[in-house]
Design brief:
Low-confidence stretches: none
Oligomer: single chain
Helix content: 25-40%
Order of helices and strands: EHEHEHEHEHEHEHEEHE
Largest sheet: 5 strands, parallel
Structural class: alpha/beta
Radius of gyration: 19 Å
Strand content: 15-25%
Number of strands: 10
Length: 229
């Protein structure tokens, strides 16, 4: 009998954001696939969960994916978690799900925290329509990415890293006349911060406070006017 693949959302910072259902599923499955075993072990220790861990991250080859699929095909139930948030959103979880669906495996979502939904909920703007673009490219394609942001007729949300967030805001500023920005930094954690304002103000804030360019960033770009060529 084929097992089940569970896609389990985990906290993005505050471990108290774990849901009762997610805890139960992690206790019941046979194995847990995760990005970083060290990070996941801290979460499992907090909730007294002991399960075999399988490494599965963006650098994993197809062999890791096939190992997970193989275990499920042999009847084991496997949960997939990321270091933080909901698997399948800007991580390789979607590839695993695609193969599982192709194989006829039952895939069950266990919803919970998402950095995107967390920031959207406190944005204070109409987000009935928006575009989510994941992470900007590291090198090739960055200009095209931000040209797309600038040309959007709806708000745009994306993730960013502390290594590139300021550079990317500068690149965005080159493409737009005006953009109101909302940035969530270290959401749900001790040093959680939400910065709002036009792009010049937000840029100046992080340039004046480089010590705050740390952690993961979620960015919403609102009211964008494309520069005239």
């Amino acid at each position: 009998m084929t097992g089940t693949l569970y896609i389990v959302a985990t906290p993005i910072g505050n471990l108290e954001d774990m849901t009762f259902r997610a805890i139960r599923i992690l206790k019941e499955v046979d194995k847990i696939a995760c990005e970083d075993t060290r990070v996941t072990k801290k979460l499992l220790f907090r909730y007294e969960i002991q399960k075999p861990l399988l490494a599965y991250h963006q650098h994993s080859g197809s062999s890791s994916r096939d190992k997970i699929i193989g275990a499920i095909m042999q009847g084991e139930n496997v949960a997939v978690v990321t270091d933080a948030g909901t698997p399948g959103v800007s991580d390789p979880g979607n590839e695993l799900v695609a193969v599982a669906v192709e194989k006829g495996i039952t895939v069950v979502p266990i919803p919970g925290v998402s950095a995107l939904a967390t920031l959207l909920s406190v944005s204070g703007i109409d987000m009935q329509q928006f575009v989510f673009l994941g992470f900007p490219p590291h090198k090739k394609g960055r200009k095209t990415f931000f040209a797309r942001v600038a040309g959007s007729n709806v708000s745009v949300a994306y993730y960013d890293s502390p290594y590139r967030v300021v550079k990317n805001l500068l690149l965005l500023k080159e493409n737009v006349v005006d953009a109101n920005i909302i940035i969530g930094r270290e959401l749900t954690k001790k040093f959680e911060e939400i910065v709002r304002g036009d792009i010049s103000r937000v840029l100046a804030y992080f340039e004046e406070h480089p010590e705050k360019v740390k952690g993961e960033f979620t960015v919403i770009v609102h009211s964008v006017s494309q520069k005239e060529s």
